[in-house]
Amino acid sequence: MGRSGATRGGYLPVIDMAIGIFDSGLGGLTVLDAAQKRLPSMQFIYLADSANAPYGVRKTEDIYNLTCVAVQKLFDLGCDLVILACNTASAAALRRMQEMWVPSQKRVLGVFVPLIEALTERNWGDNSPPREVEVKHVALFATPATVSSRAFQRELAFRAIGVDVEAQACGGVVDAIEDGDMILAEALVRSHVDALTRKMPNPQAAILGCTHYPLMEEIFQTALGHEVKVFSQGNLVAESLADYLERHPDIKGIGNTAYFTTGDPERVSDRATQFLKRKIQFDAA
Question: Which of 68, 79, 86, 170 is labelled catalytic?
């Protein structure tokens, strides 16, 4: 796995040519899992800032500072490319990081772009003026911080016109998922869907704007009705990453994945194993 050091006492192994995937908690595992399946030869490092999760109820400045600290850890581990597999961090921190903080030889990407490409059926490199798209009424389910940032609506407006977006802040869902209380998570999802459909009775599409939410995708779909197209981010981000790597063939890997958390490794490992239905072992970051 390249150069390495102790994983305790403030030192982390340094892993050559890996792609970093960051989330405040375990939701980003849905992105990582899809990326591993799509790109089995790549090397990944997953970092969960479990000690400070959830980000969705934090102030913007706090989210920005925490995200920079986490991404720097991934840079120090040898990642030249980091994906913010956290919609809250993508919404509240990414643009500022790219403009003011990210070193010129590094790349930090978010999870909104592949989603908007799929929704608008338009490549992000297409810089023609915004145009009308088929989907006119979109339900956005996200954390309170993502909703208040209006980042999704802002990025969508660069590509499409005439799209009505109704956003629902889904308080409590991330906490319930992180705690492993899926019964509570399901009840909260149904409640939030009900609240949104009172404001937008007939959405054509729904955006699961948090990487935790794909774990509840079937519940969202059932509550919304099967005529609503639900967009989830894991596979979309994985395909976008595959396209990026085709254009950057210098990024290579050996198929390994390392997992780190700022929280309790044993507890986080247990939760991750429960989520992905396979053994996941986290080390302390």
Answer: 86
For range 227-250, the mean pLDDT: 89
Which positions ≥6 away from 188 have C-beta within 8 Å?
A: 170, 171, 172, 173, 176
Domains of the chain and any CATH numbers = 18-110+235-284 (3.40.50.1860), 113-232 (3.40.50.1860)
How far apart, in Å, are the Cα atoms of 272 and each of 56, 93, 123, 178, 280? 20, 25, 33, 9, 6
Residue 45: phi, psi to the nearest 5?
-125, 120
Q: How many helices (H) and strands (E) does the chain have?
A: 12, 12
3-class secondary-structure state, position 44: strand
Q: Catalytic annotation on 86?
A: yes
Check if the beta carbon of residue 136 is closer than 8 Å to that of residue 108: no
State which H helix or E strand residue 154 sits in: helix 151-157
Q: How far is CA 69 from the centre of its chain?
A: 17
What single-letter DSSP state applies at residue 251? -
What is d(CA 229, CA 266) in angstroms, rounded to the nearest whole number? 37
Q: Tokens 């779909």 correspond to what residue? A: 221
Between CA 1 and CA 179 the distance in angstroms is 32
| Catalytic site includes residue 170 | no
**pLDDT tens across 184-205, in order?**
999 999 999 999 999 999 999 9
Stated pTM of the model: 0.85
Tokens of 133: 């798209």
The helix (H) or strand (E) run that includes residue 156 is helix 151-157
243 contacts: CB under 8 Å, gap ≥ 6: none
Per-residue model confidence as pLDDT tens digits over 71-89: 999 999 999 999 999 999 9
